[in-house]
Design goal:
Largest sheet of chain A: 6 strands, parallel
Oligomer: homodimer
Distance between the termini of chain A: 40 Å
CATH superfamily of one domain in chain A: Queuine tRNA-ribosyltransferase-like
CATH class of one domain in chain A: Alpha Beta
Shape of chain A: globular
Structural class of chain A: alpha/beta
Low-confidence stretches of chain A: none
């Protein structure tokens, strides 16, 4: 993908930089672990520090000193997952801030306005993320609403795309808007959502409404049945996944982009993803273990620190612990995707999938 | 100072690595900001992860992957400052863990045993840190006890100095033990404490019992009157100081070593030390300020991030905020001491002291 702020090699995993920061990881370290593109959360940035402030400061890239590509979500997922008092109408969603309880309203137009102020390279249409489980009627009305909102998103976005803070600096280049497929766990509704969405002729498409609590087989089935309906010549993005073996499997199925808070959130709880499986670094067994977290890993954490030291930091709740664990996990995810890209160019993807299947998630290191 | 783990140029400021970590700052960044020697807290490391564990793992240098010099305090200061249920006898101090309330006992011999297990390059005698204010009688009995404990510390330390974990690896080199002057704010008692301590013929001496709440003029007076009593051919260390202008002033008075949690603790509360004074980065005035924290600073934080971004991280309580602020403040402290060393070799120290006097502490940047 050639974006205004750089070229992204796919398939790609995008670290999540919720509040203009990938929690606890400095930007130069994100570069060192070969982060190609970051995800920013529109909901969080809208509430704090505010999209108007970020626009005045030159956009999110300048604000956080990340001169490489950024994708922003639409805010929809957080509005629906963090707000129990939300009120959805045809016009949009009224919700309360999780910070101070203040009342706010997001419409498709307003989400586009916020995302254009942030100035990401890729923005997402404002969607209603269908909850799991959902009845067929509920999934249908939700996908219908999402499609109407997608049209409104597109109309507003392309009418105002030149308002991104970096438009002049980048010689008139504009950001891209991706659509989002919904439809719950109903294959025919997913199909209808995808087919009607593709009619909007957007530069990329995402499969949304996954990682909302459904069994893993449903996730895989929804991806498998939806992917062939999306144009293969445009980026196909599955939002909010996954475990290390899942991102390999989905990439092998044809997914170009994924994002997930798992590597960093798990890291802050002491969970490390290694080539041998997942490791809870707080376990007593690591108290005097002088091996690196993953002897097969090339990251700066595995190159310098022992399991015993990382366990100590985790037990003592030292901030360095979450930071080092996050760096390792991000490296592991991004290096996994690099090996997927290498395997694709070598025609050896099946081997890689077979090797990684089930390992990282299902086996705890013993 | 030529120590087993390296050469230290004096005067030197030592960042505090309480629990085998300078809070939120990775070891490679400590190297990047030119940290020459770290201070480790014996009390904290004894309680968690435990000195026996650290000894089995090869000592503190190996445990935390810090192959450069380390100094450990004696545990005395924390025992006295963190414990309200402590019980002091001639033999030592009984205290309760601030982590789990368990009961522990430190004697001079036990403090030495713990410090030798940690394996610092420089250990400190076990002292009773006299509180402020203290009556003359109290200060006298406290300094007497500290002197008796210093002798016991020395006797145990040098009988067991070959037990440091790195003794064989470093071809039979051993660590050094520094004495600590007490005496409260009474000049004659400080004098007596210093003179009797020097009779022990230790390789270095510290002035303790400062930064315990006394007015700044008392700190300066105690340093000024005590320094000439300590051998100028051995390192003279003032424990627990200070603000940026103070460390310049004390270095100019002849102090060789200082340590303080201020640069990192203040950083976590959003207080930055700059060449123009101190800056509370949370202030509203920085919300859209695109300057680096200190335009005159050469650190990696000032090279990449704006005041607006650091303010956002602080307001959002993002862990990256405390980390970046800590890196800047440590760089500022260590670069200040570098400029002191440069000024000494150029014979321009008076100019430097005049330029920095009062600035960093007393003026808030406006």
């Amino acid at each position: 993908m050639t974006l205004p702020h750089g070229v992204v090699e796919t398939p790609v995993f995008m670290p999540v930089g919720t509040a203009a920061t990938v929690k606890a990881v400095p930007q130069n370290v994100l570069e060192q672990v070969n982060t190609q593109i970051l995800l920013g959360n529109t909901y969080h940035l809208y509430l704090r520090p505010g999209h108007e402030r970020i626009r005045r400061l030159g956009g999110l890239h300048k604000f956080m000193s990340w001169p490489h590509p950024i994708l922003t979500d639409s805010g929809g997922f957080q509005v629906f997952s963090l707000n129990h008092l939300r009120k959805v109408t045809e016009e949009g969603v009224e919700f309360r801030s999780h910070i101070d309880g203040s009342s706010h309203f997001f419409s498709p137009e307003h989400s586009m306005e916020v995302q254009l102020a942030l100035g990401a390279d890729i923005a997402m249409v404002f969607d209603e993320c269908t909850e799991y489980p959902a009845t067929r009627e509920r999934a249908r009305s939700s996908l219908d609403l999402t499609l109407r909102w997608a049209r409104r998103s597109r109309d507003y976005f392309y009418a105002h795309a030149e308002e991104v803070p970096w438009f002049a600096e980048f010689n008139g280049r504009t950001p891209s808007l991706f659509g989002i497929v919904q439809g719950g766990m109903y294959e025919d509704l997913r199909r209808e959502s995808a087919e009607r969405l593709v009619e909007l002729d957007l530069p990329g498409y995402a499969i949304g409404g996954l990682s909302v609590g459904e069994p893993r087989e449903h996730t895989r089935a929804a991806i498998a049945s939806t992917l062939p309906l999306l144009p293969a010549d445009r980026p196909r993005y599955v939002m909010g996944v996954g475990y290390p073996d899942e991102i390999v499997e989905y990439a092998a199925m044809g997914v170009d982009m994924m994002d997930c808070v798992l590597p960093t959130r798990a890291a802050r709880h002491g969970l490390l993803f290694t080539s041998e499986g997942r490791m809870n670094i707080k376990n007593q067994q690591y108290a005097e273990d002088q091996d690196p977290p993953d002897p097969a890993c090339g990251c700066m954490v595995c190159g310098r620190y022992t399991r015993a030291y990382l366990r100590h930091l985790a037990m003592a709740k030292e901030p360095l612990g979450g930071a080092l664990n996050s760096i390792h996990n991000l490296y592991a995810y991004l290096d996994t995707m690099r090996s997927v890209r290498d395997a694709i160019s070598l025609g050896a993807l099946d081997d890689l999938v077979a090797r990684t299947r089930g390992r990282a998630r299902q086996h705890d290191v013993s």
